[in-house]
Amino acid sequence: MACCHHYFEPVEGGEEVFSVDVSAITCGRGCLKEAGEHAKALGIGRIALFTDRRLAATEHVATVRKALTDAGIDVAVYDEVKVEPTDESFKAAARFAGEAKVDGYISVGGGSVIDTAKAASLYTTWPADFLVYVNAPVGEGRPVPGPLKPHIACPTTSGTGSECTGIAVFDLLSMKAKTGIASRRLRPTLALIDPLTTHTLPANVVACSAFDVLSHALESYTAKPFTRRAASRTPGERPMSQGANPWSDLGCREALRLAGEYMVRAVADASDHEAREQLMWASTLAGIAFGNSGVHIPHGMAYAVAGLVRDYRPAGYPDEEPMVPHGMSVIVNAPSVFRNTAIAAPDRHLDGARWLGADARGAGPEDAGEVVGARIVELMKATGIPNGVGGVGYGETDIPALIDGTLPQQRLLKNAPVEVEAEDLHRMFEGAMRYW
Ligand SMILES: [Zn+2]
């Protein structure tokens, strides 16, 4: 068994080096009021403020705008960010940024908003055909040629961790698939993490975000060790999704512990500020962890589950169009996936289960998948998450299409601790159809 002793044991021809890239972070109640001073310190004179329609009317955006104006900074507001962005919405945002002639960006919102600001900055600074920077094999996966303008990311949900990563995710409309752009250059310069923003979130948004955090941490912790990736010849070639490594382990452990302790409370009671604020910290920790290790199969399958949605409309989200929120599209797969991957790293799956609050006394390596899967299912039931992939509108006959939507996510599948072929995905989707 490879895992038990030393997960990072050197392998012939394997990588021996890992790197740690992190956004600068300012965290604490009320820190959005500092946005103007931070922008000024970054040399920004005119800034594009990215947000979405719903958030544009909130006090959080008002606080940021006032802080920027008070610091003497010109603000161009773009509030047309689409929740679950597409290539078209990324392009529209880039057109706005190009015309606004700004020298910096600030994003106030969830992952969709932060990711859209990353893409707008990329395509205005280094114009190219849209697919040039998109992950292979969907796009060309070419490296971003140089630095982007400063970007201050202000998350308002406690989930994505996007404020700490160099990843921007979107739906490619022509393929009906989610994919992304991944580059260190996309990582925001500064994350302003104000836990006051979590107090007013709808319960279902808190639940979906919390499961995104949980899965970021558990996927990152159980990812293939970085030592089993072929050694990179130059630092520039070393991917951000470098696999599990000692740095990422630290954030994963604490994020899982916090998610296990606070998730149910944070969803059940909006006035439980302690629980909601701790989840936001967990999200940041998981973000700086998986931003340096990468996630794997549950996120790969999630791209298909969200991309092929038919008529599922979740509570607490804008109801104009059917959607499966990101964290939900991930967690409906997760128990089934971990039941299948535990064989490759049983100790790590058991650690994860324990940190999430499972009673793993007496459990051996052969029980690891079941113990961690059962604990996640328990948390799903306690927070009103739908019952598996079937619970968001899919049936057995959809499995081939779901597999076709997952297979292009090679960046994620290759980061799994086991080899993943179509037949493995079939087994995992089957196991994810319903859990109770
Ligand atoms: Zn995620």
Low-confidence stretches: none
State the helix count: 16
Query: How large, in whole angstroms, is the Cα Rg?
Result: 20 Å
Total strand segments: 8
Ions, cofactors, ligands: which are bound? Answer: zinc ion
Question: In angstroms, what separates the terminal alpha carbons?
Answer: 32 Å
Strand order of the largest sheet: 1-8-5-4-2-3
Proportion of beta-strand residues: 5-15%
Question: In percent, how helical is the residue content?
Answer: 40-55%
Q: Characterize the biggest β-sheet.
A: 6 strands, parallel
> What string gives the helices and strands in order?
EHEHHEHEHEEEEHHHHHHHHHHH
Structural class: alpha/beta
Instruction: Round the mean pLDDT to the nearest integer and report it.
Output: 94
Query: What oligomeric state best describes the polypeptide chains here?
Result: single chain
Q: Judging from the principal axes of the Cα atoms, what is the shape?
A: globular
